[in-house]
Amino acid sequence: MRTATYEIGVKNLTKRVAIIGAGPSGMAQLRAFELAQADGRPIPDIVCFEKQADWGGQWNYSWRTGLDQHGEPVHSSMYRNLWSNGPKEALEFADYSFDEHFGRPISSYPPREVLWDYIDGRVQRSDVKKYVRFNTVVRWVEQDSETGMFTVTSEDLEAHRTIVETFDDIIVSTGHFSFPNLPDLAGLDTFPGRLCHAHDFRGAEALEGQDVLLVGSSYSAEDIGVQAHKMGARSVTISYRTAPMGYDWPAGIEEVPIVERFEGSTAHFVDGTSRRFDAVILCTGYLHKYPFLPDDLALDSRNCVYPANLYQGVVWQDNPHVFYLGAQDQWFTFNMFDAQAWFVRDVIDGTLQLPAADERQRDIDAWLERFNAIASPADEIRFQADYIRDLINATDYPMFDLDEVVEIFLAWKHDKQDDILGYRDRTYRSVITGTIAQTHHTSWLRELDDSLTRYLSTPDPEQDGVDQAPLASA
Amino acid sequence: MRTATYEIGVKNLTKRVAIIGAGPSGMAQLRAFELAQADGRPIPDIVCFEKQADWGGQWNYSWRTGLDQHGEPVHSSMYRNLWSNGPKEALEFADYSFDEHFGRPISSYPPREVLWDYIDGRVQRSDVKKYVRFNTVVRWVEQDSETGMFTVTSEDLEAHRTIVETFDDIIVSTGHFSFPNLPDLAGLDTFPGRLCHAHDFRGAEALEGQDVLLVGSSYSAEDIGVQAHKMGARSVTISYRTAPMGYDWPAGIEEVPIVERFEGSTAHFVDGTSRRFDAVILCTGYLHKYPFLPDDLALDSRNCVYPANLYQGVVWQDNPHVFYLGAQDQWFTFNMFDAQAWFVRDVIDGTLQLPAADERQRDIDAWLERFNAIASPADEIRFQADYIRDLINATDYPMFDLDEVVEIFLAWKHDKQDDILGYRDRTYRSVITGTIAQTHHTSWLRELDDSLTRYLSTPDPEQDGVDQAPLASA
Description:
alpha/beta, homodimer, 5-stranded parallel beta sheet, 24% helix, 20 strands, 474 residues
């Protein structure tokens, strides 16, 4: 077994690093190494394993559900109709603006294909794609107790070939919105209608004319609810366990307490009411699941902004050669992954020296204490902004106005309270470029074509049925 | 690492054997060892790994699709409405008859729950369940090149615990009807209706009033087609690639050539016709997939009655400490798994001495030659009967009238040609007990309650709407 050598400042840094997953986090990691190399810094040998045929993680759309063409769990929970549910100004890369990518202002809430194009665009301009082994799934990661090296066993899904290699460091960037949390609900096995988890939801068109029950009260239920309404569902009922989301829902959407049991097509709720449904979609969240990791390396957490056992949110405390990207619940997304990836890069190449384990633990504990004191969503957003600020301060990732992004999040929450069907028509100012987003040519509620082509087009209001958003900018 | 010891005839046979999967094949293997032990023969240490919460494999029903409560691929392709699509007389255990289990004659085509009860019943009477680790998935199997021992890494899915153990022999009994084959069809990503593979089909009730397209022309398409028809689909269109099944379909079911492309809800067929559909179910078969095995141990085959590289259909030619059960396409099922399990047991405990590799290869080649000459389904059924006869002759599994079972299969095929909606009302004579099956109290087409309770009940014809099958017994 080869021995790890690790010589800072030497061009041939002979470390080998495995990045598992080429979604937005893994792509951020590739970008981080790319920029270091452009600066003349030595970078390790990199292999990025990606089971999908392309990078982009969740931002790829596939009609497949459950298992993919290779019999692997489908990664993406994406649906055809998805548009960003938060303003793009809150996720913009600090080193690659929307203006730079699109060459002109766009709206604040782009559809999926537009966001995929943006994250693809940043890394397409270099040759980092060469590091990615597509259609390759990591089967098992094991650490040699003597050398400390990791043996990574992967499978080339097209060639049906097993590959065994050793690495010095492992970066887990597979995300945690891919493995559905599927609680059992009494009698659900008798429900004869359409039944799936939000992970397998691919579009709301087929819900037209149907009575739809969504179980859950977070983003999936909120967005699938309004999508179903937009596409003509006869009724949308959202069943919450703890508290309703409480938006000013339009007629046709309502929130009710949790289901107690199903009897065939009928759901009985804990408040004693019952109703018949054509379709049930379980919007019951996702699992942290890393089937390729032994239990001592696998993060096991509920979805929260500070999973325990990760120093600076990224370094596995029990084994600082294992890193996680994007393991947090996310207000900030792409720009947080960047800050994390820059930090991980600097730890791996020795630019940053990790403190000793007990000092790391004190840092974790201090953050956990603050985490446990979070009392409101606004607190949580500020918590995450401060976390990112710490990471950026430690690296050369360009600092951006995190406080202003917090304000954007708070305005966004207000907009949703104000108009859950219209908030996507509002616009924000970029903290990176100062550009004010363009009011889109068609309001979200009336736009039935989610494509990049349509989005970037300039439809003729007379001919193309453009519906200018009537709402004021934020 | 412990060294394998292997002393024939000594009570404490210190071999360790891993059985991966506790479906009908794995259960047959447990039964085989159980009977050997009852005969005073030494048996190895056995660990049977089962990722489901109960044994029975495909014969378990779950409302879940895609991924299960632990985020693992759902094993079973079972739907609520499934009744056996072949006569039970063709799959009856030679050592445990339906008469023995139910205490009275039953019909020839029982629903799922009845068949689950039967296979469960045989092994419930002993204590072999103690060998099964439920909710435990095998992650990776690796052979030590020096000792020849296998390291099996598994995960206790409830405790989130990784377990690493060594074994002398590996028995792969995970089946090959669990990982859907999902070809891409042009434009399928634009189809807005309900879309899934047969693996994720859970019942036809929600297809009432719908125009349904089934892609494929084998058992899945045939049975989901008649189920959809039974449950009131407005139309069922079955699209074949090579040749139609050609049954005498009732009005409402028809076969058409393969789809060329989808445009939204419209399927365009290669014959130039097109039609709008509400739902598409891909009945496009399954993959041989063993994600826990390195490529040199993983069977890679199309679905056929003689996958290459398996001596006697069960011994992995390149490594005769690896065994496969039920890897064949199946006319015979439970009784074939038994014959295989008895054979594997006898190889493992040394009762049978394996010939040398070249002799095994000559045997494989001889069977392959005959396999390649198969010209008709009848040939194929006789091929499989002869294969099973060879296995039984080598072991103490009770011989049964394989030729008569071939006749049952041929009659069954004739019955289906004769009446695709009524064949399940016909009855056969058991080759094990001589019992003639009972004509069921309700014809399959009219029976909407698929439960064991209803099946075993004696409904009052006046009160319970019993519909005596009008068809003659075979």
